[in-house]
Amino acid sequence: MNNLQLLQRIGELLPAIWDTVSDTVSNNSTEPVRFESPIAMRATSQDVIAELGGNMLMIQFAMASNPDGMQVILIRPDLVLDIAKVLTGLTFDEVDENVLVDIRPFAEAIVQGLCLGLGNALFDTVVATGMGVRFQMLQLPDNLVSSPSIVRTQVAISMENVSGVCVWLMDDVTAAVIGGMNLDDEEEEEEFGFDALETQNKSTKSGAEFGFDALDTQNKSTKSGAKDKRADATSGMEVLLDVPLEISVELGRVKMMVREVLDLGTGSIIEVDKAAGEPVDVMVNGRLVAKGEVVVIEDNFGVRVTEILNPAERFRMDAA
């Protein structure tokens, strides 16, 4: 199996795994908790650190059957404080030792739920080992740092008056174990951030150049032609990168009769089809591509993306 198939397999398993986490954490909490809309994607440890770098709540563990495959769950400080407030009824200004004591059972329940969910996927009992809950500057374990690429899962968390996102990281070996796949017979190369697959024919060698995958066959002239095509594709992509797109955020929609619109005046209230706290829609050129939560950045409004629609979902939205 190649990395794309592995990612697709993990994506198929995620909803059931995180449903189990939701049930487990809710049963161990005073308030219902939902972990929803998980999305799996490729990433590198450098990209993750560059994007999320800073102090984070780090929940680290491994499966006892794969103790070297340390996994990490990351939660931002502001979400940690919000969760602690719901759990304790107290307001905290910063994540300190008291907050860590209050949040630890919540973190342990997440790991317990993941083990149960992974066990269901593997049809086996999964036990966690090497678990740690720390709040510190983001520093990934060695197996994630040394892995050419990692599987990053982004999950939306929601509970009473609280919503946010957590990130689950694992290396390819761990992902293969979870997905029930075998990578031992495959020699994978990672160049410029893209995957290459070596085929059964040892004389047919895969490579990744200019950011696109190419198949190097025994015929050297075929390889040369493939390089030319990759160069042309790269040039075309560079042109598209400068095309401007209009990004808009939609709070909600409502249908009104003409007479109702004519009756609108200063102070009128229009009720839209979204409940308070629901994610807003992020539109690109009028098409729904993501969902997010409204945040305040100094004096401006912003949107924190909590869910990216996959291409199939976007197609269904366009067709509707």
Question: Helix and strand layout, with pairings?
Answer:
Layout: H1 3-27, E1 34-43, H2 45-52, E2 55-63, E3 66-75, H3 77-88, H4 97-122, E4 128-137, H5 142-146, E5 150-159, E6 162-171, H6 172-179, E7 188-191, E8 194-197, E9 205-209, E10 212-216, H7 220-240, E11 247-250, H8 258-262, E12 280-284, E13 287-297, E14 300-308, H9 311-319
Antiparallel strand pairs: 1-5, 2-3, 2-4, 3-6, 5-6, 7-8, 9-10, 11-12, 12-13, 13-14
Helix pairs in contact: 1-4, 1-6
Put simply, the count of helices is 9
Full CATH superfamily name of the largest domain: CheC-like
Name of the CATH class of the largest domain = Alpha Beta
Number of domains: 3
Order of helices and strands: HEHEEHHEHEEHEEEEHEHEEEH
Strand content: 25-35%
Taking pLDDT < 50 over at least 5 consecutive residues as the criterion, the unreliable ranges are 185-224, 233-237, 315-319
User: In terms of quaternary structure, what is this?
Assistant: single chain
Cα-atom radius of gyration: 23 Å
The proportion of residues forming helix, as a percent range, comes to 25-40%
Distance N terminus to C terminus?
34 Å
CATH topology of the largest domain: Chemotaxis protein chec
Largest sheet: 6 strands, antiparallel
Strand order of the largest sheet: 1-5-6-3-2-4
Secondary structural class: alpha+beta
Overall geometric form: globular
Please tell me about this protein's structure.
The protein has 320 residues and is α+β, with helices and mostly antiparallel strands. The protein folds into three domains: 177 residues, Chemotaxis protein chec (3-Layer(aba) Sandwich), CATH 3.40.1550; 53 residues, no CATH class; 73 residues, SpoA-like (Surface presentation of antigens (SPOA)). Helices cover 37% and strands 33% of the residues. The protein has nine helices and 14 strands. The protein has a six-stranded antiparallel beta sheet with strand order 1-5-6-3-2-4. The protein has a four-stranded antiparallel beta sheet with strand order 11-12-13-14. Strands 7-8 form a two-stranded antiparallel sheet. A hairpin with a 2-residue loop joins strand 5 and strand 6. Helix 1 crosses helix 6. It is globular and about 65 Å long.
